[in-house]
Amino acid sequence: MDRSAAIAGALREVGPRLRRARAQRGLTLTDLAAATGISKSTLSRLESGERRPSLELLLPIAQAYRLPLDDLVGAPEVGDPRVRFQPRQRNGRIVVPLTRQPGSIQAWKVIIPPTSTTPEPRAHEGYEWLYVLSGRMRLILAGHDITMKPGEVAEFDTRLPHWFGAAAAEPVEVLSLLGRQGERIHVRAAPRERRGLRRLVGRGEPVLGHRIFDFDDIIEARHAMEEGLAAGKMVVAVS
Questions:
Q1: Can you tell me the distance from the alpha carbon of 156 to that of 175, in angstroms, rounded to the nearest whole number?
Q2: pLDDT, tens only, 145-175
Q3: Could you tell me which residues come within 8 angstroms of residue 177 by beta carbon, excluding any fewer than 6 positions away?
Q4: pLDDT band at 238 (very low <50, low <70, confident <90, very high)
Q5: For 98, which of 66, 70, 107, 129 could close a Cys bridge (C-beta 3.0–4.6 Å)?
Q6: What per-residue confidence (pLDDT) applies to 22?
């Protein structure tokens, strides 16, 4: 049923509801007219469906009946507001989509079980942001082999050959954001030297187009930025 048909059906039911509510209270049209200030003829036409209901008419009637307006118009009950996504199996991994609409940025929660297969790095168009939720994640990226722990973040150009999976005997849970080529997640942090990955920290430019952060980096950079702004100094951040 489309929306216009549903609205028309609900409006048709208002008259019978008004009549039932009045009968349940043992009131006449004269009694209701006196309580609401609405003429008997208008009330009669509302109950018969000859008059289209409006807020101006329904509000005083609801007040006279001591009923919520929703009871008179038959508003549908509000359902569970939580959004429930169906997990999917993909290449031996459990993938839970977190975005409902197609767009430039897609988000997933990925649960990756440990595996004994040999990693096969692949490249494709896009830009990816990974946040480790639990477990330890192994990231192979452009010749680097990195182990990341919960709270660490990586972002990289997916045109670089890459692979990520569980680094230990237990599964790893990862939040993944994948965007179109040229789009980046703005993690504003000054990256520190980590695991032998050289970076041009002074200019905030990552070597090989990838960056590894943890939340301490992000918080530290935010504090530095706030202090710099307060002092009127320019602060350079990675973006």
A1: 14
A2: 999 999 999 989 899 999 999 999 999 999 9
A3: 105, 106, 107, 128, 129, 185
A4: very low
A5: 107
A6: 92
212 contacts 153 by C-beta, under 8 angstroms:
yes
**Residue given tokens 């230990």 in the structure block:** 168
| Domains, the chain | 3-73 (1.10.260.40), 88-230 (2.60.120.10)
pTM for the full model?
0.47
How far apart, in whole angstroms, are the C-alpha atoms of residue 57 and residue 152?
A: 59
- pLDDT tens for 99-135 read 766 667 888 899 999 988 899 999 988 899 999 999 9
| SS3 of residue 83 by DSSP | coil
Provide CB contacts within 8 A for 130, sequence distance 6+: 137, 139, 148, 153, 154, 155, 164, 174, 175, 176
Tell me the C-alpha distance between 124 and 19, whole Å.
65
> And the tokens for 200?
């041009």
The closest of 63, 62, 38, 37 to 51, measured between CA atoms, is: 38
Check whether 198 has a pLDDT greater than 50. no
Nearest-10 crossing angle of helices 40-48, 29-36 = 110
The Cβ-side half-sphere exposure at 65, using a 13 Å CA radius, reads 25
Distance of alpha carbon 197 from alpha carbon 148, whole angstroms: 13
Strand partners of residue 212: 154
